[in-house]
Write a structure and sequence with these properties.
There is one protein chain. This protein has 243 residues and is mostly helical. It folds into 2 domains: 52 residues, no CATH class; 173 residues, no CATH class. Helix content is 71%, strand content 0%. It has 8 helices and no strands. α5 packs antiparallel against α6. The radius of gyration is 22 Å and the shape is elongated. Keywords: Cytoplasm, Iron, Metal-binding. Its main location: cytoplasm. It is found in: Cytoplasm. This is Iron-sulfur cluster repair di-iron protein. Pfam families: Hemerythrin (PF01814), ScdA_N (PF04405).
Length: 243
């Protein structure tokens, strides 16, 4: 659809669910008051139309580049990419999804009791993921970067407190399996993220964002389990051989 200041909020979100995050940021109700135009909400909330439209267009154009050959990247670059891309995605999107799920379970929970379980599972997932990301960013990734720097500079590598990178990696992979099971359950509860017929925009956006979240998490786990972690383990072994 062509975006103008006469476009209604509901139409914009229905056309591309990713724009819902923009309206949520500005506390604009795209569900019950989705009939309002950009012009109307901007006047009421004293928002610059051009800026809001720019944010909407950015959201509509946000895509993840699928052409990268991650296997050719050095471990420090992969770790940095994961932090700036996938970790940031979780921290930005999960709170918004929780807002929608909280609203849905409160309004629609009596008719669709599965919403309560979905909300509970996702809440636990986000809580655990925050701790998981912290372990990666504070412990595992810094050591991986330290190993890469030592290799580049020909320096000696001290034994870490966890003895071997394989130990924290094993724990992280267990976390990944738990999250995979959780999202298999969410997919089942949502009928593969298919909202009920005649459901409101909030319902549709929540399910669409959950599906996108799972896809991003699946790629995130793939990059770590199948590319970064094996590379890090092999890198560590080069220092053992040098002793």
């Amino acid at each position: 659809m062509k975006l103008t200041n006469k476009s209604t909020i509901g139409e914009i979100v229905a056309d591309d669910f990713r724009t819902a995050a923009v309206f949520t940021k500005y506390h604009i109700d795209f569900c019950c008051k989705g009939y309002r135009t950009i012009e109307e909400v901007c006047k009421k909330r004293d928002i610059d139309e051009a800026i809001l439209i720019e944010y909407i267009l950015d959201a509509k154009g946000s895509t993840v580049n699928q052409s990268f050959d991650y296997k050719t990247w050095p471990v420090d670059v992969i770790a940095d990419y994961l932090t700036k891309t996938h970790h940031r995605y979780i921290n930005e999107k999960a709170p918004i999804i929780l807002q929608y799920l909280n609203k849905l379970s409160g309004v629609q929970g009596a008719i669709h009791p599965e919403l309560h379980e979905i909300h509970t599972i996702f809440s636990k997932s986000y809580l655990d993921l925050k701790a998981h990301l912290k372990r990666e960013e504070m412990v595992v990734f810094p050591f991986i970067i330290k190993m890469k720097n030592a290799q580049n500079n020909g320096n000696y590598l001290d034994t870490p407190p966890f003895l071997s990178i394989e130990n924290p990696i094993a724990t992280l992979k267990e976390d990944h399996e738990i999250e995979s099971k959780r999202f298999r359950r969410i997919a089942a509860l949502t009928n593969n993220y298919t909202p009920p017929i005649e459901s409101c925009n909030t319902y549709k956006v929540a399910f669409a964002m959950l599906e996108e979240f799972e896809k991003d998490l699946r790629k995130h786990i793939h990059l770590e389990n199948n590319i970064l972690f094996p590379k890090a383990i092999e890198l560590e072994k080069t220092f053992e051989k040098a002793l």
